[in-house]
Amino acid sequence: MKRAGILLANVCLILLTQGLAGPVPRALAASQADPAEGPGCTGDPDGENCKGDCQGGEAPAATDPEVVDVGDAPVRGASNAPVTLVVFSDFQCPFSARGEATVAKLLKESPGRVKVAFKNRPLPSHAHARLAGKAALAAGLQGKFWEMHDLLFAHQKHLERADLEAYATQLGLDKAAFVAALDSPELDARLAADAAQADSLQIAGTPTFFVNGKRITGAQPIEAFRAAIASAR
Fold it and tell me: 28-51 burial string, b = 16+ CB within 10 Å, else e?
């Protein structure tokens, strides 16, 4: 199924792990040749300039599932909300941050109708995204996932381990328990499960959303989400 084109500055694509088969698409080659065409993320700590790791262009062909399994993902919003928005995200991706701002607006304007489930999809080009994902889950073990989630997206340029431990202190977490969880293989397993699910859904970049199974790729305008929510069954 052919999908509408996505602005180049909407999504960080996973290129390092999957590679590109065959010739580089024209839109991708153009973006690599001129990184100033749009903001993006290079995989450096700042993630400010697009140099080939964050192209949009045409979304990959994929079959949308009827339901995306939430599993043990953190969820916010009314538990009985009829619409479930599942997001696969990367704490270091600026487009993921943009998408999270849109999700926050949707939750505020649709109380009781929408709930959001968060899945980690740290990109290999983002050096701090994986540990940041574990930090959010570690905070979640103490009931503060969403508080840590919001801090991480608010401070994307400060995701070193020392920063994460400072955020734990700021949130009043048990520091020793947080550090132990941060290093635990159990949280590695949770990230691996999210990654496996993302692969099974043919997710090629972040952020990727599913609104009751309907895929929305990239930090799209809020109208795209409103339309999907309005038509959700």
Answer: beebeeebeebbbbbbeeebeebe
